Amino acid sequence: MSCRRRLGLSLGIAVLMLSPPAHAAKGKVPPGSFLRQPIHSVQDLARTIKQDPVVAKRYSAHFGMSPAALADYFARCAWTKNLTHSHRYTVFYIAKNGKIVSRVRTVKAGSTVIVAWNGEPIMELRCGNPFLKRLPQPPTKVAEYKAETPPKKPEPPPKQEVVAPPEPEVTAPEAQQMVEVPAEAAPTTEVTPPIETKVLEAPPVALVPAEPPVVSPAQPAAVGAAKSTPNLLLPALIGAGAIGALSGGGGGGGGGGSPIPEPAGLVAITIGAVGVFCRWYAIRRK
Hints:
286 residues; alpha+beta; three-stranded antiparallel beta sheet; two-stranded antiparallel ribbon; 7 helices; rod-shaped
């Protein structure tokens, strides 16, 4: 073998050893991965979604979002984190027929995952296979991530009409409720209105104490004379009556019969006697 052939063979072997294989240049990912090349950050994921249409179509079909909205979400609301302990997740992957299927798999502690803004794991970084069917909603809507729905303008709150509270219904007690009776069945009674009686109050009368009578010195003599008057009048009245009776009886025209006293004379005598007696009795009580 000549020197030239030996030199050419040595250079060829060196080139083959120094140059990486074709699959290594593109990167190697596990079978069934959403990604076709390995990534190292969320920025790499956002860039891959924008540049690789196959990867963008897979994520858009799974999350139901446009590729632009997905790239914006991962660039703004996600970051990487290493798991502190192993955990079982429902992992979505690409089957051999190209469909998206899922299975439960244990992700070991120390694996790098992409988490959302609230700390919830979204996918494994080495393969890009998601753990969720929908991405957590960000706290503030920077942009609408759904391509199908255009941005909505916030609607003003409806005006609330001030309604006055209804007035409470005043219901009379059951004892005071009137029962309506038909006019034919109701008994007809005449009601006499009560007669108002007014009591007249007499004005107050001031009582004046009576003063004791003043007796003059001549009063006993007059009283004594009054007391002695019946003793004098009684014989005089009796005598006058007797004289009248006797004188009235002599008009008989010379008849020989006994004289009969007239009734008028007897009545006069009786009235006079009664009056004198009453006067005498009244004076004596004094």
